[in-house]
Specification:
188 residues, 8 helices
Length: 188
């Protein structure tokens, strides 16, 4: 129990799980393991149906997770951050951090490390300090990133990923030999 407690209490673990994208990625990743696992453990299902259903569920979750993490979130997060940089041109936080990932790395720092980072960034001709990059401006940038991640989550996992996954599942199952050309359980 001490091992689990030390992981959960670890500040790095806490920081890594604070974003919408991270939380949904973890949830979908767990679904990719737990749902097929539950199907495989059900002894009231015949072997072929078990294999087919577990494989289909795993592929659905894995494809959805890949679409979400590799396509949806980067597009929404980067796109929204670029829009915010254009809309809030006078906000120093958007001048100091050209990508959402660079900002998030800064955002997770302790206060003393934030001041050091701002001094480092100021060497390039711009002057960044706690006077022009306030907690309020940090919350603005973080809000842009998290809101876009939330919108990407809803659209990605509710619309885009399911459409993509359902188109890809049967060809993959057919390629690995789980589905034959004529599947007897197809709807008439």
């Amino acid at each position: 129990m001490a091992g689990i407690q030390s992981i959960i209490a670890n500040q790095s673990f806490f920081q890594a799980t604070q974003g919408t994208a991270a939380q949904m990625g973890i949830k979908t990743g767990l679904n990719a393991v737990a749902r097929p696992g539950a199907i495989l453990l059900d002894n009231d299902i015949d072997q072929h149906t078990k294999k087919f259903s577990a494989s289909k569920e795993f592929l659905y979750q894995a494809i959805s997770l890949a679409m979400y993490m590799l396509v949806i979130i980067p597009i929404f997060k980067n796109g929204a951050y670029k829009l915010a940089k254009n809309k809030f041109k006078d906000e120093a936080v958007f001048k100091a951090f050209d990508t959402p990932d660079k900002f998030k790395a800064f955002y997770k720092l302790e206060e003393a490390d934030k001041v050091k980072k701002l001094k480092e960034l100021s060497k390039n001709g711009d002057t960044f300090s706690r006077k022009n990059i306030t907690e309020q401006s940090e919350h603005l940038a973080n809000g842009v990133i998290e809101t876009s991640s939330l919108i990407g989550t809803v659209l990605g996992l509710a619309v885009v990923a399911p459409l993509t996954a359902t188109k890809a599942i049967h060809p993959i199952l057919k390629a690995v030999g789980i589905v034959k050309d004529e599947e007897p359980n197809k709807k008439a």
